[in-house]
Structure formats: structure tokens, C-alpha cells
């Protein structure tokens, strides 16, 4: 039995929504449901999976813009995360999706998650345990999901392949972002797979050697 992973780019920004599912229980979660909810829901149905939860790393529209529609399709599946410091982004979602409509984003109402997440908490998918790390900087409430047994990190927009998340947004902080990467992510094993919010996956070891913004 295994933890299955499918990365599904959605939204005009090709944001990496990730479908995770447990072979044994057929339970699944979707991370960062930024848009194209009907397509994602059909994918879950076609695989015969039971969508347990939606997990969110942070509150930017390309990561959360499809959540309300997905909840309508899935009979109000619970939404878990991000950290409560990103509340202001979820509250502003109607304005942001209107603003970015010319770029192809669908309108979304605001919403509240079923549960905020904090540093040191855990979430579960079948037998798989994911630890929560709070890594502000890109947004103040950004979190990541780390499964030690599978050496897997759902990293959102913190660490990219040879890059890092932007810090030119309201309440962003370059200092906080780089500190979180150095003190939390770069302490993980080198062979941990990092599924970033955009573009290709990477590993912790690769970034420690090759990331020009923050070396290990």
C-alpha cells in the first residue's frame, strides 16, 4: 500500500493543486484548490476516491479560489488550514477574484476554514501523518505539510526549485521567509521531495546546494 500523489496545475497561474490518496482506505485530500473545481471533483470521482478534506497552505487567490465551489460539489468537505494570520486574505477573496477576472480567474466569495492550523499540529490521511510548520514571509499565515514517513513536503509558495516565494505583498517579509526556510525546511533530510506551489518539484538537498536566495 502507498501514498499516491498527483500534481494538477490549475488557474491561469498554473498553481500546483495536489491530489493525495491512500491506497488502503481510498481516502483523499486536495491541497490548495485554487480553481477548476469541477475538473478536480471529476478527477476524484473517476478514481473512486472519498474526498476527506481540503488542505490549504495560504490564502492567495490562486491557492484558494476554487474552495467554495469544491465545497458545494462535495457536500461541504472540511477545509483545513492555513494559519489564522491569513484571515485577511480569505476575507478579501471576492475583491481579489474580481480584480483578476480579466486574467481568467473565476469569482469566489470569502470563506472561513473549518479549522485553522498552527505550528506543531498534525493532520492525517489514512495511516499517513503530516506535521504542520508555520513559515510566514510569503504571507503571514503560510504553513507547510510534512510527511516524515514518505519524505514529502507540500510546500506552497515558500520554496521553489532554485527560487523562493515572493515577498512584495502586503504583510510579506523576506527576513521571515528566509529564516523559516533555513531553520525549518533545511533541517529536513536532503531527499525530502518538495511539491512547490508552482513549477517543478525539487528536493531539500538540491535547494541547499543550488538555491541562489538561501543556501544550506
Automatic annotation (TrEMBL):
Domain Metallo-beta-lactamase per the UniProt entry, residue ranges: 14-198
Entry keyword annotation includes NADP: no
Presence of the UniProt keyword Metal-binding in the record: yes
Molecular-function GO terms, alphabetical: hydrolase activity; metal ion binding
SUPFAM superfamilies, per database record: Metallo-hydrolase/oxidoreductase (SSF56281)
Alphabetical keyword list: Hydrolase, Metal-binding, Zinc
Cofactor dependency: Zn(2+)
Signal peptide: none
Highest taxon, organism lineage: Bacteria
PANTHER family (UniProt xref): HYDROXYACYLGLUTATHIONE HYDROLASE GLOC
Official protein name in the record: Glyoxylase, beta-lactamase superfamily II
